[in-house]
Amino acid sequence: MPGGTSSTPQYEALYNGLEPPPFKMPFIDSPDVVTSNTLRLVGETPDARKRLLFTSLTRHIHEFVTENKLTVQEWRDAVAFLNRTGNMSTPDRPEMELVLDIFGVEALVDAVNSPPGDNATESTLLGPFYTHNTQDVSHGDSIASEGKGEYMYVEGRVLDTEGKPISNALIDTWETDDTGHYDLQYAAEVPDCRGRLFTDNEGKFNFRAIVPVAYPVLADGPVGDLLLAMNRHNMRPAHLHLIVDALGYEKVMTQFYPSGDKWLDSDSVFAVKKSLIVDLETVNDSERAKALGFKNPDKGFKLLKRDIVLRRK
């Protein structure tokens, strides 16, 4: 902090004995000098990758300030916004992550690191409500407790890019209930609407779930203020999350989006990819529903049938 001192002995020890840089820098007499001095010091970063990132970040931030002639009040408002965002952020509510999401940053990182190029299933955002605290389910079991929403049956295979089945692939899946809330938002002690299973020897998987619904991202904090300022909605289209992992293959984090959702092409966090949109088949066969284990088979169910293709490492 400006004018402050370190109060932690381990950090005081780290900084003891440091000297000024081995070069002279001019005193500030123009905006350009501020930028050049900052870049000169950042350029002393020992690690090459960090030096590249810090230098590029510094250059872009300084260009933003000078290009837009940022006022002192705008700067103070920005700092207050960041402080408010940090204070609101918790493990169950990563507000700062969501700020970056609504500016498309996480979607862009995903697109840069996972370009399409073969028939492998495309990745997308992990989302803030993933947790290792889930339930193990067998094939045909339900990841959702009864009464959480409209019945859905999910089935498919996990394959490599040559079409060969991948056995013992881990599938970790989760979704909201019919009100658009994840179990973590209820502080539930028992995982619900989420589960983990493995493919069989033929790469097949199947489980019961519920039809996902569209829902709003949390908007009662800084993220909501930003969206309102930009005249944007805060909706995410309905989706089912999946992480699929198998030995010797690249893990994929993805989401399947039922077609027909009105929010598909304006997702508030820019996560929808065309290849991840799926058609749900309506099945009104009570005998089939009963055989699959649905407790109220007369209601029928929706069928989501989709294979997942993994790249070899």
From TrEMBL:
Domain of life: Eukaryota
UniProt keyword terms in alphabetical order: Dioxygenase, Iron, Metal-binding, Oxidoreductase
Pfam families per UniProt: Dioxygenase_C (PF00775), Dioxygenase_N (PF04444)
Ranges for domain Intradiol ring-cleavage dioxygenases: 127-294
Domain Catechol dioxygenase N-terminal intervals: 47-116
GO biological process terms held by the UniProt record: catechol-containing compound metabolic process
Co-factor(s): Fe(3+)
Bilayer-crossing regions: none
MF (Gene Ontology): catechol 1,2-dioxygenase activity; ferric iron binding
PANTHER family linked: DIOXYGENASE, PUTATIVE (AFU_ORTHOLOGUE AFUA_2G02910)-RELATED (PTHR33711), INTRADIOL RING-CLEAVAGE DIOXYGENASES DOMAIN-CONTAINING PROTEIN-RELATED (PTHR33711:SF7)
Family under the similarity heading: Belongs to the intradiol ring-cleavage dioxygenase family.
Name of the protein in question: Intradiol ring-cleavage dioxygenase
Lineage of producing organism: Eukaryota, Fungi, Dikarya, Basidiomycota, Agaricomycotina
